[in-house]
Write a structure and sequence with these properties.
By secondary structure, this protein is mainly alpha-helical. The protein contains 15 helices and no strands. α1 packs across α7 and α2 packs antiparallel against α8.
Length: 405
């Protein structure tokens, strides 16, 4: 299995941009929880901390697709340093404001500017696409990136919290900002693997890919996937606490990541003949089916196995969704297309966590997994819709090609 992944790094420059991209994407998973940890320590309350973190998450959804559209138009080297600088400088200003007890409204404004964080996962995938477009190895590269996304969300939050608790309250957010500066700097310095820019497109106005039927549907598809992830995070903690073993929640959640990583790596080595328009329906159905055992778990062992089963669908889901976007959008707009999916995923995690928290308060920890099941059913429906739209698009392009010939 690992031979397929070793082949990826025989290409010049791939190991370097993958490592730099990994450093630059860690801040996404570190910042929100880092702000909550810092402000809760400084102010002694979670309300303001939660609002500031939510403001940061919402601003990412607003900024990230626009930044990626600018990258498609002007190139990574010209756009990413400015976006990273705005985000990092806003973070340093926010830390100063919090340390010297500045006004709450200023914290919210600065948190929104911190959200200028570029979607580095999309930037790395864009480089892989340029190198491997039209080859079976592209799916392997996408699967590898899905595993790295998982690892970031495994390592990032505990790293940020640990630094803030052990060193000083601002340590987690400071580290996230420094990693962003270093990671982006190393990433853009590698020019030979940077996706080329079509100069003729720089002065043309394009309609946002949010209006592209397939991209829009897949963004909602990934939003539903994010709701499942956020629900599992919160509901697992609540379930373990209700069982009298709160520390066991970390073990339960590690099995979700384990299932996702292992299946993601395995899926990347497969050469499935079915078209992506069929695969997207399959993965949507599989997510829905594997969400059912979550509401049936009666103890921590059962929940751990159910979470492991749910986790094995995550890697293939994001791999197929990204591959379908690559197939559907023009090459010079790929970064924006991928960013919409990643933005949908991130927003879904936040919504899922909020919904699961509300459901836990009203129905109890075990019943809160109904939120994940509902999101799974939505994914099945959206996967079917994406499949239909993709087939219609393929038929349209095929007919146009025949007409031209």
């Amino acid at each position: 299995m690992f031979h397929a992944y070793r082949q990826l790094f025989t290409l010049p420059g791939t190991a370097a941009f993958a490592l730099a991209g990994l450093l630059a994407r860690l801040p996404l998973s570190m910042t929100g929880i880092g702000l909550i940890t810092m402000l809760s320590q400084q102010r002694g309350a979670y309300t303001l901390a939660g609002v500031v973190s939510a403001c940061f998450a919402l601003s990412i959804a607003l900024f990230a697709p626009r930044i990626s559209a600018l990258v498609d138009r002007y190139g990574q080297r010209r756009v990413l340093p400015w976006a990273a600088a705005l985000s990092a400088c806003s973070m340093f200003a926010l830390l100063a404001c919090a340390h010297w007890h500045g006004p709450d409204w200023l914290l919210l404004v600065l948190a929104a500017l911190v959200g200028a964080l570029p979607s580095m996962s999309a930037m790395v995938r864009a480089r892989w696409t340029v190198l491997l477009r039209g080859t079976p190895q592209l799916q392997t590269a996408y699967a590898f990136e899905a595993v790295l996304d998982d690892l970031c969300f495994i390592v990032g939050p505990p790293l940020s919290v640990g630094l803030s608790m052990v060193l000083f309250p601002e340590a987690g957010p400071v580290t996230a900002a420094l990693l962003l500066i270093v990671g982006v700097g190393l990433f853009v310095a590698q020019r030979r693997t940077e996706p080329p820019v079509d100069a003729s497109q720089q002065h043309q106005r394009h309609r946002s890919l949010a209006f592209h039927p397939v991209v829009r549907t897949l963004a909602l598809f990934m939003l539903a996937q994010g709701i499942i992830v956020g629900t599992i995070d919160v509901a697992s903690v609540a379930f373990a606490t209700a069982q009298g073993q709160p520390a066991a929640a970390s073990i339960v959640l590690s099995f979700y990541a384990l299932g996702s990583c292992l299946m993601g790596l395995f899926f990347g080595t497969l050469r499935i003949k079915a078209p992506l328009s069929t695969q997207i329906h399959w993965v949507g159905a599989s997510v829905c089916i594997t969400a059912i055992p979550l509401i049936m778990a009666g103890n921590l062992t059962g929940l751990t196995l159910a979470v492991l089963l749910a986790g094995i669908t995550f890697g293939p889901t994001i791999t197929v969704a990204m591959s379908l976007v690559e197939q559907q959008v023009a090459p010079n707009r790929l970064t924006e297309g991928m960013t919409w999916l990643l933005t949908g995923l991130a927003m879904g995690v936040a919504l899922g966590a909020a919904a699961a928290g509300w459901a836990t308060d009203h129905w109890g920890a075990r019943t809160s997994f109904v939120v994940a099941l509902a999101a799974g059913a939505l994914m099945w429906a959206l996967g079917l819709q994406a499949s239909r739209l993709a087939r219609r698009s393929e038929d349209h392009h095929a007919a146009a090609a025949q007409g031209c010939s």
